[in-house]
Amino acid sequence: xxxxxxxxxxxxxxxxxxxxxxxxxxxxxxxxxxxxxxxxxxxxxxxxxxxxxxxxxxxxxxxxxxxxxxxxxxxxxxxxxxxxxxxxxxxxxxxxxxxxxxxxxxxxxxxxxxxxxxxxxxxxxxxxxxxxxxxxxxxxxxxxxxxxxxxxxxxxxxxxxxxxxxxxxxxxxxxxxxxxxxxxxxxxxxxxxxxxxxxxxxxxxxxxxxxxxxxxxxxxxxxxxxxxxxxxxxxxxxxxxxxxxxxxxxxxxxxxxxxxxxxxxxxxxxxxxxxxxxxxxxxxxxxxxxxxxxxxxxxxxxxxxxxxxxxxxxxxxxxxxxxxxxxxxxxxxxxxxxxxxxxxxxxxxxxxxxxxxxxxxxxxxxxxxxxxxxxxxxxxxxxxxxxxxxxxxxxxxxxxxxxxxxxxxxxxxxxxxxxxxxxxxxxxxxxxxxxxxxxxxxxxxxxxxxxxxxxxxxxxxxxxxxxxxxxxxxxxxxxxxxxxxxxxxxxxxxxxxxxxxxxxxxxxxxxxxxxxxxxxxxxxxxxxxxxxxxxxxxxxxxxxxxxxxxxxxxxxxxxxxxxxxxxxxxxxxxxxxxxxxxxxxxxxxxxxxxxxxxxxxxxxxxxxxxxxxxxxxxxxxxxxxxxxxxxxxxxxxxxxxxxxxxxxxxxxxxxxxxxxxxxxxxxxxxxxxxxxxxxxxxxxxxxxxxxxxxxxxxxxxxxxxxxxxxxxxxxxxxxxxxxxxxxxxxxxxxxxxxxxxxxxxxxxxxxxxxxxxxxxxxxxxxxxxxxxxxxxxxxxxxxxxxxxxxxxxxxxxxxxxxxxxxxxxxxxxxxxxxxxxxxxxxxxxxxxxxxxxx
Length: 838
What we know:
Layout: H1 3-25, H2 27-56, E1 67-73, H3 84-93, E2 97-111, E3 116-124, H4 128-132, E4 138-139, E5 154-157, H5 159-166, E6 176-179, E7 182-189, E8 202-205, H6 207-210, E9 225-230, H7 236-253, H8 255-258, E10 262-267, H9 268-273, H10 277-306, H11 310-318, H12 323-356, H13 362-368, H14 376-402, H15 406-410, E11 419-420, E12 424-425, H16 426-456, E13 467-472, H17 486-499, E14 504-510, E15 521-526, E16 539-545, H18 549-553, E17 557-560, E18 592-597, H19 598-604, E19 614-617, E20 626-633, E21 648-652, E22 663-668, H20 672-686, E23 692-697, H21 698-705, H22 707-741, H23 743-751, H24 756-789, H25 801-827, H26 831-835
Parallel strand pairs: 3-8, 5-7, 16-21, 18-20
Antiparallel strand pairs: 1-9, 1-10, 2-3, 2-6, 2-9, 4-7, 5-8, 6-7, 11-12, 13-22, 13-23, 14-22, 15-16, 15-19, 17-20, 18-21, 19-20
Helix pairs in contact: 1-12, 2-10, 2-12, 2-14, 3-7, 10-14, 10-16, 10-22, 12-14, 16-22, 16-24, 16-25, 17-20, 22-25, 24-25
């Protein structure tokens, strides 16, 4: 090794050893600095781990960048599910995807020797596993022969389902299991590492079940979406162009169902994480401000400490050390502090990412499983942040100390400190920066808090208190063909058993229940008005409910009457061949009773009495029955208090028992949780083999829909609190240092007759002069931040007066408290002691 290189390494080691001795010599200073940096670096690390999982970590599929997500869009909805017949046409006409698949997830009952449990069933087309690049671990792959009408029922189990329900039985492949009352052959077991966008336990081919799900109707968009694997060299833009051409072709060929219908195409990564991007970027800005404030605080500590080391630097300069050597030594000390803070911050960040992980979209959680934690990318981020932070807070003190005048320092002559704009010392200017950053965080947290308060005042249109919601499996969907009223009879038996409980006040079943993510929309047209053009039919949320539904939810009846359980039923002979084509024939001469919300009444019958008016479901050629309005009820919010009220209509399940998943809603006389055990027992008394699941008080469901806003508000409040504390500490530190440096001056002023109140006031005023410029800068920054934060607010302007008045006032009070301690110390200076002070 060359001698120069050996000497350089030796010098570096000496500098590092000296830096360690400096930290050990000042343990209090070192501990405070490391803890301050650990908090800032830890918060950034935690958020970056989540960002890494959400945006940067590759999806667990081969060549994930070639995976695309496809949905349909109409003039009414930007994103809607895909019609199965349309998908089949896509598959036949496209050549941009090497594999294109459709999937739909529904519930099903899996019966084993020990129990019957609700499982999630993925209905998929033949290319599903090929598109995702999945190889079956045991058994055989899904083929086109499995995915055709009339094929033998087969299924593929996930590894978790195989272990949980069948104890990992190695001989299960090739045997039958009971799924939805049907014997289904297990064709394969999927690998343990495979994860899909949704929680799925069992996969089945879609085509053999399409007819029983009424998916062969082109107008029926039954919750299915498509995933495609782009061919090598094909871009998303190219695929989007071709799919749009196909959509236009289908619109011309099928004007009844496809007028105004297009195709939305995006990368799979964008689909599952794009909605959270803004939220994460805002939080990244917040934690970045916290780190900047922590760095400013440490920089101020080093600037204050630099005065005590001026003599040391002077001696080293006199002994021949160059300015470059001094700066290198001081920067090594800063980087060592930052490194210790970085190690502590990385450990703190790994712990904190579990908390921030709640922000990850559920689709990403399903795919990523437990997350990635500290990988090389995260460690690289920590190293980069640590390096930048160490240089950032160490550069100014190092520059200042390296330019120490040896003669002045050895003579104890005070010299001018580094200043900004000729008036404020650098340490004082940095306090202004801290104040500005703290005010930005305070106002951001204040706006989110005010937004949450406004959201909490929104009336959902029903009474969630003492309301229990749950789901219970119903007869298999295929039984609808042999007895369309089987599900209604079953639900009535369950209701009868539950209503007998003394703690139950009312109970009812309903579809599209508020705050459950279950939304079903139907097109319709009004009697006596021109039939709309294709693609322009109005649509509203549809609810199929049993009697007592409105009483159970506490929805107000405004006019007319509610369902009473005596609605006229059509006569359908047993064994009738029920399809969407034959079903309307059984409703000839029967008008359904319907109820509407005030919102739909105002939209389509404004200025008229809607009672007695009629509208028809679907399109004219579908020949579905007419609905006569018998009642008007209050509006409800369905998918979040911030989404507003939507147009809704209600039909009696007794009259039109379409096979759909239903929720059981129970109005209790006690707390809902206290009634769960007895409700389960009552249901099992009439349906012993049916699983009861998704049990949750409705108040909790309502709360869950605003949990993201509350979590954001709590995080911003926490960051604002940390920022406020750091700003207060920074101001206190600067003033305390200034007072210590001016002890002799203060003593002289007191000896010459200055009142102690004047001394106290001068110190406080000096502190406030540091705060006021920061307040002005912070208000401007908060205004800019508010524009970015606007999408996260509800019912609050970004320039909300209360927030912009209260937050600076809180910051001023904090600053005043930080000023009073050093001000009182200055006012209590003994002139005799002060005149002896060096």
